[in-house]
Amino acid sequence: MRIDPHTHSAASDGTDSPAGLVHAAAAAGLDVVGLTDHDTVRGWAEAEAAARQAGVALLRGAELSCQWRGVTVHLLSYLHDPADLTLSGEMEAARRSRLDRARTMVDRISRDYPITWASVQAQVGAGATVGRPHIADALVAAGVMPDRSTAFDTVLSVRGPYYIPYHAPDAVEAVAMVRAAGGVPVMAHPRASVRGRVVPDAVVAQMAEAGLAGLEIDHRDHTAGAVEELAALAARLGLARTGSSDYHGAGKPNRLGEHTTAPAVLERIESEGFLPVVRP
Ligand code: AMP
Ligand code: ZN
Ligand code: FE
Ligand code: FE
């Protein structure tokens, strides 16, 4: 069983359509793929139909934008009830805030680079959650950056002069919100320090207390040392261990299935979730 529970489609900042992503997962030999677009479940319906066709199981999820004292935290929510108004309202608020933030970043960047809000919008799929990757795509289209990764390392860096944060719920409160919506919360890439600051263990412990189910330990943004420390932390807090590719399509080097999750962990997620895994 090959299970890759964290990927993105064009419903947020991936480059494959939801159906294209599912077919790519089948071609990559995955048995189960998790679709976890940023702050949206918009891709679920299309992915579900494709999963039945492609013979791949689909784990429906989302990656919620959260923060702890200004530090970005990504929380995976699996199998939650999409009709839950608190959770869907929080996702809607994060999407709106991301949009404002993108406009302001583009204002700043456009003083120094030949992009406009219109040229960024041209990179965003209909109704998709906006993020820095779309700004990167506009910089690439303008011919001033070779690819997304270079744009992230320079113009779009958290440590750069153009970076702006956006409103997002507190990570501990978000864990409780996911549980209240029947979802299973897993903290995404808890030690991805290449992306910016990370939260201390004490905050992970508070999240565990609030109902966190697991830690995404096996992820390309973690060093071997971080993996070891996180494995110990998960054991201490009684949290499950997940691994994933965090695939974004063509815009990122991450390959489907480069890290995977054990079947027993998926079983636990499914047993605690409001929705079932879609099986072909
Ligand atoms: P944002 O959420 O707007 O702050 O942008 C960060 C997101 O960009 C994360 O989800 C990253 O996974 C994603 N991303 C996509 N392509 C890249 C890339 N080539 N380098 C770094 N981050 C990327
Ligand atoms: Zn992303
Ligand atoms: Fe993330
Ligand atoms: Fe992600």
UniProtKB/TrEMBL annotation:
InterPro entries: PHP_dom (IPR004013), PHP_domain (IPR052018), Pol/His_phosphatase_N (IPR003141), Pol/histidinol_Pase-like (IPR016195). It comes from the Bacteria. It holds the Pfam family PHP. Residues 3-68 form the Polymerase/histidinol phosphatase N-terminal domain. GO terms for molecular function: 5'-3' DNA exonuclease activity; 5'-3' RNA exonuclease activity. CDD domains: PHP_HisPPase_AMP (cd07438). PANTHER family: EXONUCLEASE (PTHR42924), POLYMERASE_HISTIDINOL PHOSPHATASE N-TERMINAL DOMAIN-CONTAINING PROTEIN (PTHR42924:SF3). This is PHP domain-containing protein. It comes from Georgenia ruanii.
